[in-house]
Design brief:
The protein is an alpha+beta fold. It has 2 domains: 18-125 and 127-174, no CATH class; 179-360, no CATH class. It is 52% helix and 20% strand. It is built from 10 helices and 11 strands. Strand 1 (18-24) and strand 2 form a beta hairpin. Helix 7 (242-261) runs antiparallel to helix 8. The chain starts with a helix and ends with a helix. The relative contact order is 0.13.
């Protein structure tokens, strides 16, 4: 985890993401695609322009990076329709229409979508796949694609409440797994959990039971905080600008990282976890709102998204805490902790600077 933060300091949430919006037709599936033009140009090496040659290059690129196969195996016919570069609510995007037609006899309501445009060679880029007008519940965010995860199973027919709940769990889990900043904050809290502070220094160790209780409080506080914000924003629609939220999230990691090296909120970890959880919840809520899908339209999908977040959080805790408790009782925990805290400070500081520059640009 810490090595990943060091090597890929920009690998937290990005504002530039692609969208593939699918809609069932009488014969197959139609897709409306939006890819940030700058990301497309970087990944493809092509010019992001509306001249004939550039648009032809864009069509070839898209055709080479998408496919659909039915659940029983046959590949569908893919046709790239209208392609253009235009502003789409802000920075220029590559906008495209794609049709997928199944071979004769192949099932058209269950298929695997393969999509690797941009994400194949851009580690921090995300493509969200939305199923539009699949039933009366409206559009449904069915998953996130990124480097190493370029295929997703789609059920285009009417979805049940249980299916939407399960889909929302997957989206929540994928979202937090792709957000190194949220995971970095959690790791920063856990690094100090085995320790007791005296005279402004980390000087002694908690017992195993005390450390587990401390971790439970931290996890509960963070969960309470981000759940309150997520639900409140979903119900009211009120939130802060996304650029400001991302800067605040980086600031919470920076503070938690300094606490790893020297206790600055000892004995107040629970309240800090709740307070900082409120800030991270704004980030989760911003993602949900930008998705423009049915995550906010009913309680079950919103709960599913939150469950997905919590499942990943639990897995991280179960993986990290035994290791930390083992290391803490060895003579090298202090240099390990200080090194880890320094890496987190460097990463969060980098995020704060780059996000602030993005916000004022």
């Amino acid at each position: 985890m810490l090595a990943t933060l060091w090597i890929f300091p920009a690998g937290a949430h990005t504002s530039a993401k692609s969208e593939v919006r699918l809609e069932a037709t009488e014969t197959g599936i139609a897709a409306n695609v939006a890819i940030p033009a700058a990301e497309y140009a970087y990944a493809s090496g092509n010019k992001a322009s509306n001249d004939v040659a550039s648009l032809a290059d864009a069509k070839r690129y898209l055709r080479a990076h998408t496919a659909i196969r039915s659940a029983d195996g046959p590949a569908w016919k893919v046709a790239i329709g209208d392609v253009r570069f235009a502003e789409n609510g802000g920075a220029p995007d590559l906008l495209a229409q794609i049709t997928y037609d199944p071979p004769a006899g192949a099932a058209s309501d269950r298929f695997d979508l393969q999509w690797s445009a941009v994400i194949a060679n851009t580690p921090d880029h995300v493509t969200q796949v939305v199923l539009d007008k699949n039933d009366l519940s409206g559009p449904r965010l069915i998953g996130l694609l990124r480097e190493g995860n370029t295929k997703i199973a789609v059920v285009a027919g009417k979805s049940s409440t249980v299916a939407r709940f399960v889909s929302a769990i997957r989206v929540g889990a994928e979202h937090i797994l792709g957000g190194l900043d949220h995971l970095a904050f959690l790791v920063a809290l856990l690094l100090a959990a085995p320790l007791l502070a005296r005279n402004g220094q980390w000087q002694s160790l908690r017992s195993g039971k005390e450390a587990i209780v401390a971790v439970a409080k931290l996890a509960s506080g963070f969960t309470i905080g981000h759940s309150i914000t997520l639900i409140s924003v979903a119900l009211t629609g009120l939130t802060l600008p996304g650029s400001a939220v991302e800067v605040f999230i980086a600031a919470t990691i920076l503070i938690a990282a300094f606490n790893v090296i020297r206790p600055i909120f000892a004995q107040r970890e629970l309240w800090i976890a709740v307070l900082f959880g409120l800030v991270h919840g704004l980030g989760f809520a911003g993602f949900v709102r930008e998705a423009d899908a049915d995550l906010t339209r009913n309680v079950s999908t919103l709960m599913g998204f939150n469950v997905g977040l919590e499942l990943v959080q639990i897995v991280v805790i179960l993986a990290v805490i035994p290791v930390l408790l083992f290391i803490a009782r060895r003579g090298f925990y202090s240099p390990f902790r200080i090194t880890a805290g320094t890496v987190l400070i460097a990463s969060s500081g980098f995020w704060m600077v780059t996000r602030t520059l993005d916000a004022v640009a």
